[in-house]
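JOB MANIFEST
job_type = single_chain_structure
chain_count = 1
residues = 205
[input]
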Amino acid sequence: MQRAFDQFKDNMKYVKELDALYTHLFGTLSFPNDLTDILRAEWVYSVSAMDKLIHELIRIGMIEAFQGKRTRTRKFLSFGISVGTHTNITTTPITSVPPPEYWFEQEIVERHKHSSFQDPEKIADGLSLIWDEDHKWQKLATAIGIRESDLKTTLKTIIIRRNQIVHEADIDMYTGTRNQIDKRDIDSVVPFIENLSEEIFKIVK
């Protein structure tokens, strides 16, 4: 799982490089320029990095559970697989290449390829495949040091705006103008995503 978190940190480095670019251009360009799309890109990429991390943590955790290296959760035990995958798993010798867990991994990837782990409820549901805790957000909120309701509300607000940027060109449906965004927004959103993602990793690793 450490490898998945290292990849998350690499992905967040790209976000910080964009932030440095924005700061440089904002401070050096003397003619009117709208640089806010750089900030929007930071917003979107931060959420994407978190989404990717959770996908990877679930995939790796499920394989570990399949191999008997991790406790199998209630949701893991109810995870259905296709007849084809079951056949491949049961007819593949443990020492063969690819091994039985390869086929299980392919099932996980196929089942989750259209899933997004961004909304609090979807994140909790996905993590149930590797983390048997009934009060996930309460645990995360305690680790971060804020109220559970504030943690979930902040994340939901970030995801709503991310969706507006990606799916609606960040245009207000009533005024027809682009929603405002500034550096202060990013200076709040990016650390929040980093902190939450790190706590998720630390709890489930």
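[summary]
The mean pLDDT is 95.
The chain has one domain: 2-204.
exit_status = 0
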